[in-house]
Amino acid sequence: MNLPPKVTERAFARLAQINTAAEVRPLRVAVSGGGCSGFQYDIRLDRAEDDDLVLQGAGQTVVVDPVSLPYLAGATIDFADELIGARFVIDNPNASSSCGCGTSFSI
């Protein structure tokens, strides 16, 4: 059985900053074909669907659809705030290579 993805406390904390009391939406992490390496990450605020894997922490929710789940098995979803910018990042043990910007990968 594949390990589900993990979400760091830092990622949950950033999601809490993004969400407001008036509107709390889950962070969707998905994988689709495309990008310069073959697959690309799609990270956005969205609503949860019935068949999503739901990961919760700090009162926040991250969801992953069943099609993307095998590509994200054992991955760590984090938030990085660096000189080049702040963004959600994925450390994916399934990726054999990735592009320089970190949004696309190959298996």
TrEMBL record:
<dbReference type="GO" id="GO:0051539">
    <property type="term" value="F:4 iron, 4 sulfur cluster binding"/>
</dbReference>
<dbReference type="InterPro" id="IPR035903">
    <property type="entry name" value="HesB-like_dom_sf"/>
</dbReference>
<dbReference type="InterPro" id="IPR017870">
    <property type="entry name" value="FeS_cluster_insertion_CS"/>
</dbReference>
<dbReference type="GO" id="GO:0005506">
    <property type="term" value="F:iron ion binding"/>
</dbReference>
<dbReference type="Pfam" id="PF01521">
    <property type="entry name" value="Fe-S_biosyn"/>
</dbReference>
<dbReference type="GO" id="GO:0016226">
    <property type="term" value="P:iron-sulfur cluster assembly"/>
</dbReference>
<protein>
    <submittedName>
        <fullName>Iron-sulfur cluster assembly accessory protein</fullName>
    </submittedName>
</protein>
<dbReference type="InterPro" id="IPR000361">
    <property type="entry name" value="ATAP_core_dom"/>
</dbReference>
<dbReference type="InterPro" id="IPR016092">
    <property type="entry name" value="ATAP"/>
</dbReference>
<dbReference type="GO" id="GO:0051537">
    <property type="term" value="F:2 iron, 2 sulfur cluster binding"/>
</dbReference>
<feature type="domain" description="Core">
    <location>
        <begin position="6"/>
        <end position="102"/>
    </location>
</feature>
